[in-house]
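User: What would this chain look like folded?
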Amino acid sequence: MLGVSLLTFLFIRLIPGDAIAARLGTSTALTPDQLALVATIAEHILPETDTPGARTALVHRFIDAMLADSYPPDERQHFLAGLADVDARAQRSSSRAFLRCATTEQRAVLDQLDREAFAATLDRGTTPFFRTMKELTLVGYYTSEIGATRELRHAPVPGRFEGCVPLDQIGRAWAV
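Assistant: Here's the prediction, encoded as structure tokens.
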């Protein structure tokens, strides 16, 4: 697991999220249905508010690229099994696939997964699917142009250092 996290970090430092997403015209690790499912889950994790959401930032394509290019086959399969579990849970609770559920039903499924992922111990060697999904969503969003410039503030060349500035003067956190 540490290897994948480190590899993800190194890969992301070299290639911004939107550059990864832009180079992919079609899905490579995910089927179109899985890609739609990932896009919907990512949008629940980072919804559109006064700033664009995960779907607009093409986070689903970033996740697809990461799965195809950076994840070993066993971890990719674990992620795909997690996607199948999301659909199975929706089927059990609402008698329909996750993408056909109402927003409140979708959130109930994701809330349950989030509680289980939070409570899970990492001693077993496998990271819970939803924890991985959230991590990839956040990394994909905040390394995209939208995340770095519209959600965070981006200073391509930082100005002079001011060590003690009241937060109300700068507003949001900075992305460098």
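The first strand starts at residue 153 and ends at 154. If you want, I can go into more detail on any region.
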